User: Fold this.
Amino acid sequence: DLKKEYQELTQKMEFMEVLLPKEKDIPDFLVLLQETMDEFNIDFTNFSPQNIVQEKDAIYARLPINMTFTANYFETIKFLDRLENFPRIVDIRDLKLNPTGDNAENVNISMTMFTYVLMKGK
Assistant:
């Protein structure tokens, strides 16, 4: 039945918009990310959202965010776990952990994180 198929496709599209919000929702994502970092006592030294990169013929684009921060090792693991379970897609790349030297439990972390956005008119 065509009506049923339309409803199913509409539901799938609504679900995809949760995982792939539109460009205008980027500030909301950044606020959520900052709140999560605060929750895990993450002291970032660099937080640099980059320009959105759209792949040719893709309905989505990537928003790279470069981050460096210092945190307790165990809090960092919890933070990364929370990112994995965020309400939208988050992809961690180039994760590097180095001991701070002054406290064995603290680490300096650098990473590039990608989140994805649904492009207009797609």
